[in-house]
Specification:
By secondary structure, the chain is an alpha+beta fold. The protein has 2 helices and 4 strands. The termini are close together. The protein binds iron/sulfur cluster.
Length: 64
């Protein structure tokens, strides 16, 4: 699975990182970065939770 954070939509709130710190990282950036690529299938549940909780709808699964 591959995941994309749209930097034009992301406001850097950190919700995704708090839900899935193995996958998303803010660091010093203004928007979240995906730090695992590809993402192992075992993370699907937390990825879907991060997608559901992102207030800007900035996270997408780009490849199953
Ligand atoms: S939850 Fe959404 S808006 Fe917030 S940092 Fe993550 S991708 Fe960006």
């Amino acid at each position: 699975m591959r995941v994309f954070v749209d930097p034009d939509l992301c406001m850097g709130c950190g919700v995704c990182e708090s839900i899935a710190p193995d996958i998303f990282e803010l660091g010093d950036e203004l928007h979240a970065k995906v730090i695992l690529d590809p993402i192992p299938e075992k993370y699907r549940y937390v990825v879907e939770e991060a997608i559901a909780e992102c207030p800007e709808v900035a996270i997408q699964i780009t490849e199953e």
